[in-house]
Design brief:
Strand order of the largest sheet: 1-2-3-4
Strand content: 25-35%
Helix content: 40-55%
Largest sheet: 4 strands, antiparallel
Structural class: alpha+beta
Number of domains: 2
Shape: elongated
Order of helices and strands: EHHEEEEEEHE
Length: 152
């Protein structure tokens, strides 16, 4: 049985509002510079720049939320994060999972075993926008991987 987590409604709304706010700021700056540079169509340039910025900022998140897709899953075969890869990271490749906290935001730092001479790969999983609490995600991971908590 897999523990599956999706975007929560409140964090999704907050993220969209943030993306819209940033798009307005970027659009204003593009409009201002296009007016200062005396471009012939500053409004079209601003519209295109704002649309491209908003798309890069939130298109994948909006798509997954609207389709109610799974964002993170703790599966018997590995740890899945759709924002990172379309495949789950197998448990035998995971060296350690560390919970890190910055103010009220929680993230998992997944450290993989090194492959040859390459440094170990790190994967960040943001837990804040998910529809589950940090404790339930950690309880689902605990039987499969070693978890440490950053007390900084």
């Amino acid at each position: 049985m897999a523990n599956q987590y999706r975007y929560s409604k409140t964090s999704f709304h907050k993220s969209v509002y943030t993306a819209v706010g940033l798009t307005v700021i970027i659009s204003f700056l593009v409009w201002l510079f296009s007016r200062l540079m005396v471009f012939s169509h500053p409004y079209w340039i601003t519209f295109v720049a704002g649309g491209v910025f908003f798309s890069f900022c939130s298109a994948a998140m909006i798509y997954r939320y609207v389709r109610d897709e799974i964002v993170v899953a703790v599966r018997p075969d590995g740890l899945f994060d759709a924002r990172h890869s379309s495949q789950a990271v197998p448990w035998d490749q995971i060296k350690e999972v560390r919970l890190e906290r910055q103010e009220n935001e929680f993230q998992l730092l997944v450290q993989l075993w090194p492959m040859g001479e390459a440094p170990p790969k790190l994967i960040w999983i943001d837990l804040s926008p998910l529809d589950a609490g940090v404790d339930s995600v950690l309880q689902a991971i605990a039987p499969h991987a070693r978890i440490s908590v950053d007390h900084a």
